[in-house]
Amino acid sequence: xxxxxxxxxxxxxxxxxxxxxxxxxxxSGFSVCVEEKNPISEISEIxxxxxxxxxxxxxxxxxxxxxxxxxxxxQKNRISPFEQIKVWEDHPENALIFDGKKxxxxxxxxxxxxxxxxxxxxxxxxxxxxxxxxxxxxxxAADGAGSETRQQAGxxxxxxxxxxxxxxxxxxxxxxxQKIACQRFLSTGPLxxxxxxxxxxxxxxxxxxxxxxxxxxxxxxxxxxxxxQDAFGSxxxxxxxxxxxxxxxxxxxxxxxxVQPGLALIGDAAHTIHPLAGVGVNMGFLDAMVLAHILKxxxxxxxxxxxxxxxxxYERARKSENLLMQKMIDTFxxxxxxxxxxxxxxxxxxxxxxxxxxxxxxxxxNSFV
Length: 369
Fold this sequence. Notes:
Blueprint: E1 9-12, H1 16-27, E2 32-35, E3 54-57, H2 59-68, H3 71-75, E4 79-82, E5 84-88, E6 96-99, E7 109-113, H4 114-126, E8 138-141, H5 148-152, E9 157-173, E10 180-186, E11 189-195, E12 201-209, H6 210-218, H7 221-232, E13 239-241, E14 246-255, E15 259-260, E16 263-265, E17 271-272, H8 280-300, H9 308-331, H10 335-347, H11 349-361
Parallel strand pairs: 1-2, 1-8, 5-10, 8-16
Antiparallel strand pairs: 3-7, 4-7, 5-6, 9-12, 9-13, 9-14, 10-11, 11-12, 14-17, 15-16
Helix pairs in contact: 1-4, 1-8, 8-9, 10-11
């Protein structure tokens, strides 16, 4: 079953990035068609239980939501602001703390359930559905890391397989999280705690080697709780899993080309990143907004929106930025380089300030936000 709106731009994929692109393009006056294998109109309503899939949303992405008129709707549901990011290796007493107040950005970001974002974006898109489908001038691939659209176009990817799984679950903590996101670096991979709206609940992303991840998925809750406690320590008190556990493969992937005549890749179809900093979906949102801005400008200048000259402007604007972020995050997944980086950041507060500024203000130079 497919959900569609019609027009001269066809978006393959109705996830968060694809729907955001559709919303932006529709608001710019384009006629758009969205194709999604799962029926978008049947996005589940917000339920009592938290969605296992959550995203860390930066202030820049919030400004994007505001510009599209969907932030008010998102805010009506559960959103979880966080004010600090606490990072450590051996002991939390030696943690490096990124504090949003130091750069005038409080909160530093929000943890939001994916279905909340999708529902708000879908409500934005559904208002502009048309009955008739016309031929498309441009196809936008937003169909994920395994993009069929990208493969059919013959675009290859550079891939680094971490041979790890990212295990996600929701955890109850005996101590309140105090709106602090925590990241502990372990020899087997990073373990992140993302604060939810309940002060005693966090979403975790635990990077583990493939075989260990399979074990952690299969053991009883009581054994999992013990393993998690040993890995994270007592920073948040006693830990107890309160949800199912899921895992996904971790790899860094970058399409060798983002565009070709009549086609543009955005989001995970163009690039994937280690979930270390939780910035992946924000990169995709920026892809969508930059592309929408470039297409709007091309139409005003009466240029072909599917032409290679137009689309390469998008590729130049986003590919180098995404590669820089991928390399930065990849460096922090290597123990020796990560340790050096943390020491440097701790020693030179200017670098600390720069990193936080990048997280909170990156992309503001673009006129769309």
